[in-house]
Amino acid sequence: MLKIYNLVEMIYFEKTKEQEQEQREVAVESSRLHEIILYNDDVNNFDHVISTLIEVCEHTPEQAEQCSLIVHYKGKCSVKRGSYDELEPKCIRLHAAGLSAEIV
């Protein structure tokens, strides 16, 4: 009976270790830094992009202007870094303002 109990205990221990590993992987993934990439378009003007970056991404006017110029000339720019949970509502607000952006 002792061997069966030890076997059950070992199986339970292995499952617990697997569950802990999965929880750690989820925690690492959710804490990993992501970034919002803003893409150039032919619709929005500089003033709109700048004011949106100031409002949504909490940029200074200088940061927002620099990002808008990079987007204009390079086609894209990383405008904000953080956890996915932090960036998702900001990206949604950028979309609502008519800007093209994604979280990577």
Distance between the termini: 54 Å
Shape: rod-shaped
Largest beta sheet: what is the strand line-up? 2-1-3
Mean pLDDT: 89
Number of strands: 3
Rounded to the nearest angstrom, the radius of gyration is: 23 Å
Could you name the ranges where pLDDT drops below 50 across 5 or more consecutive residues? Answer: none
Find the CATH superfamily of the largest domain: Ribosomal protein L7/L12, C-terminal domain/Adaptor protein ClpS
**If you consult CATH, what is the topology of the largest domain?**
Ribosomal Protein L30, Chain: A
Please, how many helices? 4
Major sheet size, sense and barrel closure? 3 strands, antiparallel
The helix fraction, in percent, is 55-70%
The fraction of residues in strands falls at 15-25%
Helix- and strand-based class? alpha+beta
